[in-house]
Amino acid sequence: MSDEHLSASLAAGAEDGEGRWAFGTGFEDPLHGVDTTVPDGVDAGALAALCLALGDDALVGAQRLAQWTTDAPELEIELALANIGLDLLGQARLLYARTGQVDGTGRGEDDFAYWRDADAFRNVRLAELPRGDFAFSMARLLALSAWRLALFQRLAAAPDPVLAAIAAKGVKELAYHRQFAADWIVRLGDGTEESARRMQAGYDEAGPWLGELAADTSADALGGDAAGAAAELRQVWEETARAAGLTVGAYPAHPGAGRSGERTEHLAPLLEELQSVARAHPGAAW
Questions:
Q1: pLDDT tens-digit profile of 151-179?
Q2: Fewest CB within 10 A of the end CB: N or C in the chain?
């Protein structure tokens, strides 16, 4: 696209009032043209709550991955993490759009991303923990992607066709995310003494948060099968550890749940950074 055409596109988006902080200007509703009627027999409240929670997982996870920009061990890794983050942002956009349709508020993706405080988010707390070192980031990415992949594989048959389509689209993305993390965990665990030490520490730090993922039943009413997803997560976690020469402990689970609105002290500062420009210039378009 030429600079002239790009400028015209941006100007048109601003004039039409369609500017979006998260995704630029000139974009239509991500579910435009899709029949978004909630099918008979589907609990709209449960559907909206699930889409919001899964969208929050994706948005917060993407923001943490973005913190590796210019700071990753290698340029190739930096590009891979950026692309994984973009995959998650795409999932968040679709899930937030579905939430706004189903909950009756008509809110869009920017409303959910930029105009809620930390106590209104419903992501699992593992996603909001500080970035940590590369080993911890890979342990967290493995846990979140393995669990999310197991859920999405099941939600691809959800009774709501929109959620089913979103899940089906995300399956291939999440399979790559899981494989990327597993490959690096094995390389680090089977590498030098220092890399193995760090990878074990990353596993030990992320491990106690797996209980919160396993206990989340918010997707069950729509075909998510929490028990099955938890079993797959545990299998992937243990098989990857064995391949990497790591030890899996009997982790005591952290009490509480992000799905019920309980937060760590780390989410608010992350959101302050994420939301700062949009809140400093409300109503602006670019």
A1: 999 999 999 999 999 999 999 999 999 99
A2: N
Instruction: For tokens 């419903």, name the residue.
Output: 122
What would the DSSP string read from start to end of 167-196?
HHHHHHHHHHHHHHHHHHHHHHHTS-HHHH
pTM of the model as a whole = 0.88
Q: Could you report the per-residue pLDDT of 93-144, keeping only the tens digit for each?
A: 999 999 999 999 999 999 999 999 999 999 999 999 999 999 999 999 999 9
Helix axes 134-155, 44-66, angle to 10 degrees: 150
Give the whole-angstrom CA distance, residue 215 versus residue 125.
Answer: 13
Angle among Cα 9, 14, 19 to the nearest 5 degrees reads: 95
Pick the CATH number of 42-248+259-280 from 1.20.1260.10, 1.20.1250.20, 1.10.3810.10, 3.20.20.105: 1.20.1260.10
Decide if 232 contacts 213 (C-beta within 8 A): no
Q: Are 262 and 212 in contact (CB under 8 A)?
A: no
pLDDT (0 to 100) of residue 18: 47
